[in-house]
Amino acid sequence: MSAKRRQPPRPESASIDHAEPRQAVTVESMLCVLERMAAAAGIDSPEALDAFYDSVSEEQFERAQAAWIATGPRAHAQHLAYQAMLDARSDQEAESLARRALELDPQCVDAMVVLAELTAEDRVGEFITRVEEAVETARRCLPADWVWWQFEAQPYLRARHRLADALRVLGRADEARLHFEALLEADAEDHRRVREPLLCCYLVQEDLESARALLDRFDGDASAVFPWGRVLERLLAGCPDAAEAALRPARRQNRYVEPYLAFNQAPPASKPERYEPGSREEAVHCVYILGPAWAAHSDAILWLRSQSHHRRGRS
Description:
This protein is an all-alpha fold and about 325 residues long. The protein has helices at about 20-40, 45-55, 60-70, 75-85, 90-105, 110-120, 125-140, 155-170, 175-185, 195-205, 210-215, 225-235, 240-255, 255-260, 280-295, 300-315. Helices cover about 65% and strands about 0% of the residues.
């Protein structure tokens, strides 16, 4: 059974509907078992771990997983939470799994968030309050010397990321940025890619100094979010010529973004969980991230529309 080691870079693509990529949770759910197996076998070197993971059969994994679940209610609850996030075939099944997890462990943070997602959809204030409670519960459970890649930290990071993104989408950028900044401080390499929604918050607030610092810090980022974010930053800085210059590489990075941000074309209702660079799916992701920032500045939208019009006129 193949799996990455505990500290690999997370997938570069980010989930649209949820803050945490599904693939990352899947890997984590496997590693929590595989690393127990490796520790029991006395294996700790990177090379030996990779070879060990590749050698584990499904039957061996299932036995080890059952042994982990049997260690106590907390492990059993976390397993049920993983099932709710990854394997449930319906919202009803996910809700049932989350409730069973919380019966076993009332501090199962992943189950708290799943239940908030499923039972507070039409009550935004309640959803925010419940995810805030999950974040605080997770914070209390963390050891003093925790680091971002530990299994124990993942539910906390997941819940705080979900809270931050919900606040951002609701237009509460001042609150969202504090959470995103804390997540970035905890993981300076930003494996969860919180830099993207954090850039949106800075641009919504017209905190151009912070936006430029973030753009420079991750200069060369492969996604379409940063080049299109730089276009808006240059416009807000009052530099239309520089914005026009920044528009060229943004178009090269992903040409499908422009009609969405210019409100000339509505993005699809469904949001892709994964995407390839330069694809239409990436453009939808880019609009999900940056759309609130552009929408907050109508002059920027009018400018982009004029650029689109001029471009069509030259073609």
